[in-house]
């Protein structure tokens, strides 16, 4: 075994495969940032396994020189769950898009999160089906005109953060494809979390849904339209950080500090352990509110599924002794026929 | 003085409401017969509803035991003794009881209300319609209540609930059995509620004593032990044998077993048994659905465990896409299908073998898998073992077919004595990074290497997209696709090296070969033996390997003038045999959710031989 942890860099995690996303796709930025995150995690590449479903995002594992499994549509969380249970020593990541994880794979998404198995589920959310060339997705807005909804989509979109919270996820966060440093911080926090983690990545599909997230993600607009969550800090945003969120009863409102008698102390303070606050924040979105980004919920100290399973196995072995196959076969009521 | 008569074989059927405890009564009778050394076979027949409305026809639950002083292969065509706990049970089962058969009824239950519910216009106990049977109409319920009069700690309802053991006591007297093992079993079962153990024991002894004392019962019977092969035996049901087979194979390989499953009748028992074997390095995972169940097993296999999933037909349909993934990524995977009557939800508690073509073909694209089938309850053990061995040796999904009849039916199992009696299962995980290619193949088996994530220097990616030969990189190349389809097909074909030649029971060549697969073994075997005893030139062959077939199958089929294939479907094996070997196989097809009767097979043999 290695005597010393090697110093890893981004190159160490690049595979020899040519990356084949459309030019300008947000996935390139995500890949570049993730390679750095893997390098920074200080875990060597053979200890990492990336499991994906189907869609543009799901090509991700081919481009990372770790163990990888490009599976079938929607099922990556289920396959990753089996892998993590069988191999708790591995760092297991799941990559999928909004259609893969929230539509065809919605059931597995819910159950992987509520089981608190230590897998990191990254949802590259571009609010459109890209690989099949432009159909409405479960996060598409009402009224969206696509190839399958020429008169506008009638379906109400699902809110991935609210859904993850309702699924009892113990780590829930949101970041954006091009936000190098914010992205890095969120991912490192997800990597360090014991239990299931969900990260919604606002991702840009340049071909079928360009600039869908621009009002929140764009360089000039994020300060006004994104609310960067920091644990223990008041909910402030705006170019001059003078705006904030005040919660009266259960109703959030945007206020400006220093106007109308609003003091800093009137603003709500973010608490990653506060379930109700996390849900309330997940409902905020433009134009009435800024869109919260960062870590909505982070709760430690709950037993992760793979650990629970391993300790039940150990407990059973301690109580009954290590299983002896011949004894198992020769159990129950036996009788002997003599020669 | 009571008369003692000798019998070679007896079939007894317990029937009552699904809440009457017929399954436990039958099981206790079976265990006692097994301990006495009888050969035996059992068949539980219970409704899908846990407790259908009491007294109704759909709520009737039955358990049939066939025990004998020589070897037997089926639970018996028709009962010699029918114990019916209410009018509905009588109505459902009487048609199977031959004239002059012994019929024991709970007279207390033949009241107006119950008779009406079962659709009787008059009381058969009184109207003479049962005159052709040896009828014993005994007020079981009230006698049980009387016997338990001293039990102040039980309610009237609880006392009445012991009537099945009163009936069991009568059956024990009738067949000269000891009650000891049941007394012991009751103590264990009700360890925390000793008053129940005691009450049931008292009820059983009262039933026994009643027969002993009553003038009604003049004859009792004796069925001596069968001269079975020397060895240690236990009675086993198919699902338990299957679970133990999986554990044994994984244990022999020294590799952890992972079982991902979703509850479904009649396969749920396997998950339940395995959940109790955690100290064997077994992990069970009750998934959110059938797809997640197979998915988790594939994930575990990717991680280097023996991934197994189990279900019944509807669940297997849902798993189809994922099984195709396992074909493509060439990971070992065992898929157990405990078949039930379909299509759709069908008849969940009834047996059928109509998923053979689904197993062989039921996926998109050219998606070959190995298909095995167990033939008897105890045969589920070696077949499960074999499924694991083949899946890991060839890096291929293996579908193991069982069915509801095997799953819940039981028979004596002659146990392997030592670990050496079990085949070796060698799993050499690949660890050498030199010239590693994920899809490089073993020259003999065509299996690719199994690499556990975590192995340094062997990082690689697999997936459901077509693979380039050797490297496993994604490839849309035309010639490569053809080559890979053929390689996957060829790999499954090469499993034939691990398939024993098909053996024939009976003449090597001749007029008629009866060929079958799966749980029809017992009925076919018994019928063929009877036909042979009558001098007919008929032979039997039974397939345990459905894909690939044994190498000599074509040659065996060609040696007989005619071939008959009895199946509990409309002719699925027949279709495969005709397509593959151009032999005009004839079918005998029963699709009633019930196993074949020996007589049904024998009649067809007599017509053809």
Q: What can you see in these coordinates?
A:
The complex is a heterodimer of chains A (339) and B (609). Chain A has a domain at 10-212: Rossmann fold. In chain A, 30% of the residues lie in helices and 19% in strands. Chain A has helices at 26-41, 76-86, 98-104, 106-115, 160-166, 180-192, 214-217, 222-225, 275-282, 305-320, 325-329, and strands at 48-52, 67-70, 91-97, 119-125, 171-176, 197-202, 226-228, 236-237, 243-248, 251-256, 291-298, 334-337. In chain A, strands 2-1-3-4-6-5-11-7 form an 8-stranded mixed beta sheet, with helices on both faces. Chain A has a 3-stranded antiparallel beta sheet with strand order 8-9-10. In chain A, a hairpin with a 5-residue loop joins strand 8 (236-237) and strand 9 (243-248). Chain A is globular and about 100 Å long. The termini of chain A are far apart. Chain B has 609 residues and is an alpha/beta fold. Chain B folds into 3 domains: 3-222, Pyruvate-ferredoxin Oxidoreductase, domain 3, CATH 3.40.920.10; 234-421, Rossmann fold (3-Layer(aba) Sandwich), CATH 3.40.50; 510-608, Rossmann fold (3-Layer(aba) Sandwich), CATH 3.40.50. Chain B has 20 helices and 22 strands. In chain B, the strands form 5 sheets. A 7-stranded mixed beta sheet of chain B has the order 11-10-12-13-15-14-20, with helices on both faces. In chain B, strands 3-4-2-5-6-7 form a 6-stranded mixed beta sheet, with helices on both faces. Chain B has a 4-stranded parallel beta sheet with strand order 19-18-21-22, sandwiched between helices. In chain B, helix 4 packs across helix 6 (163-174) and helix 17 (521-533) packs across helix 20 (598-608). The two termini of chain B are 49 Å apart. The model of chain B has no long low-confidence stretch (mean pLDDT 95). At the A-B interface, strand 2, helix 2, helix 4, helix 10 and helix 11 of A face helix 1, strand 9, helix 9, strand 11 and helix 11 of B.
């Amino acid at each position: 075994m290695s005597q010393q942890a090697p110093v890893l860099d981004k190159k160490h995690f690049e595979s020899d495969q040519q990356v084949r996303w459309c030019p300008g796709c947000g996935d390139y930025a995500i890949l570049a940032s993730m390679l750095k995150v893997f390098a920074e995690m200080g875990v060597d590449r053979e200890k990492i396994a990336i499991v994906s479903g189907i869609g543009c995002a799901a090509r991700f594992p081919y481009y990372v020189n770790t163990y990888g499994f490009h599976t079938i549509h929607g099922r990556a969380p289920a396959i990753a769950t089996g892998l993590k249970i069988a191999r708790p020593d591995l760092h297991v990541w799941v990559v999928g898009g909004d259609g893969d994880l929230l539509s065809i794979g919605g059931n597995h998404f819910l159950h992987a999160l509520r089981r608190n198995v230590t897998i990191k589920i990254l949802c590259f959310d571009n609010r459109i089906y890209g690989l099949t060339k432009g159909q409405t997705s479960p996060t598409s807005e009402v009224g969206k005109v696509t190839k399958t909804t020429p008169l506008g989509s009638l379906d109400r979109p699902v809110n991935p953060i609210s859904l993850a919270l309702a699924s009892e996820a113990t780590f829930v966060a949101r970041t954006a494809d091009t936000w190098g440093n914010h992205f890095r911080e969120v991912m490192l926090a997800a990597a360090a979390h014991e239990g299931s983690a969900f990260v919604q990545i606002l991702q840009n599909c340049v071909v079928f849904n360009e600039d869908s997230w621009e009002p929140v993600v764009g360089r000039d607009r994020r300060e006004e339209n994104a609310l960067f969550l920091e644990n223990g800090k008041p909910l402030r945003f705006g170019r001059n950080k003078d705006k904030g969120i005040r919660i009266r009863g259960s109703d959030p409102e945007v206020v400006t500090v220093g106007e109308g008698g609003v003091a800093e102390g009137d603003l709500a303070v973010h608490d990653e352990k506060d379930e109700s606050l996390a849900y309330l924040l997940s409902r905020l979105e433009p134009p009435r509110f800024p869109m919260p980004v960062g870590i909505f919920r982070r709760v430690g100290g709950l037993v992760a599924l793979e650990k629970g399973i391993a300790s039940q196995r150990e407990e059973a072995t301690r109580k009954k002794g290590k299983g002896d196959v011949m004894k198992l076969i020769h159990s129950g009521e036996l009788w002997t026929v003599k020669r | 003085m009571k008369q003692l008569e000798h019998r070679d074989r007896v079939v007894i059927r317990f029937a009552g409401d699904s809440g009457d405890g017929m399954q436990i009564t039958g099981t206790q009778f079976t265990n006692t017969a097994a301990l006495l050394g009888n050969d035996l076979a059992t068949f539980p027949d219970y409704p899908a509803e846990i407790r259908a409305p009491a007294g109704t026809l759909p709520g009737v639950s039955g358990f049939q035991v066939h025990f004998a002083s020589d070897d037997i292969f089926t639970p018996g065509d028709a009962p010699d003794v029918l114990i019916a706990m209410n009018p509905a049970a009588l109505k459902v089962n009487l048609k199977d009881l031959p004239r002059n058969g012994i019929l024991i009824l709970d007279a207390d239950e033949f009241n107006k209300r119950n008779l009406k519910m079962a659709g009787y216009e008059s009381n058969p106990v009184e109207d003479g319609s049962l005159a052709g049977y040896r009828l014993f109409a005994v007020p079981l319920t009230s006698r049980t209540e009387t016997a338990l009069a001293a039990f102040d700690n039980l309610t009237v309802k609880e006392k009445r609930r012991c009537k099945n053991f009163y009936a069991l006591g009568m059956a024990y007297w009738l067949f000269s059995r000891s009650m000891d093992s049941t007394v012991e079993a009751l103590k264990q079962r009700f360890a925390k509620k000793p008053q129940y153990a005691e009450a049931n024991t008292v009820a059983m002894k009262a039933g026994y004593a009643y027969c002993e004392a009553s003038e009604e019962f003049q004859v009792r019977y004796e069925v001596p032990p069968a001269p079975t092969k020397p060895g240690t035996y236990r009675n086993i049901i198919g699902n338990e044998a299957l679970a133990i087979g999986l554990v044994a194979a994984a244990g022999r390989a020294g590799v952890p077993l992972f079982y991902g499953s979703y509850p479904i009748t009649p396969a749920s028992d396997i998950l339940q048994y395995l959940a109790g074997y955690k100290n064997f390095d077994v992990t069970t995972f009750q998934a959110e659905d059938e797809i997640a169940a197979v998915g988790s097993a594939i994930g575990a296999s990717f991680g280097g465990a023996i991934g197994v999933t189990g279900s019944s037909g509807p669940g297997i349909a849902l798993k189809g896409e994922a099984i195709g993934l396992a074909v493509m990524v060439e990971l070992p995977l065992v898929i157990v299908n405990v078949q039930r009557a379909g299509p759709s939800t069908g008849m969940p508690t009834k047996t059928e073998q109509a998923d053979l073509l689904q197993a062989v073909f039921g996926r998109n694209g050219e998606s070959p898998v190995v298909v095995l089938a167990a033939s008897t309850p105890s045969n589920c053990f070696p077949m499960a073992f074999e499924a694991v061995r083949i899946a890991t040796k060839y890096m291929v999904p293996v579908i193991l077919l069982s069915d509801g009849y095997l799953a819940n039916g039981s028979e004596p199992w002659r146990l392997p004595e030592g670990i050496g009696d079990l085949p070796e299962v060698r799993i050499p995980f690949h660890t050498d990074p030199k010239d590693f290619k994920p899809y490089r193949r073993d020259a003999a088996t065509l299996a690719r290497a199994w690499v556990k994530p975590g192995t340094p220097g062997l990082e690689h990616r697999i997936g459901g997209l077509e693979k380039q030969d050797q490297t496993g990189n994604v490839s849309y190349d035309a010639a490569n696709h053809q080559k890979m389809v053929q390689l996957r097909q060829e790999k499954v074909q090469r499993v034939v090296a691990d398939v024993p030649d098909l053996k024939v029971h009976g003449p090597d060549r001749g007029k008629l070969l009866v060929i079958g697969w799966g749980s029809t073994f017992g009925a076919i075997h018994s019928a063929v033996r009877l036909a042979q005893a009558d001098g007919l030139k008929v032979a039997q062959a039974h397939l345990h390997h459905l894909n690939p077939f044994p190498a000599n199958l074509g040659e065996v089929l060609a040696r007989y003038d005619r071939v008959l294939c009895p199946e509990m479907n409309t002719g699925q094996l027949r279709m495969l045999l005709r397509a593959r070997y151009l032999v005009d196989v004839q079918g005998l097809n029963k699709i009633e959710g019930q196993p074949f009767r020996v007589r049904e097979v024998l009649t067809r043999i007599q017509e053809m031989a």
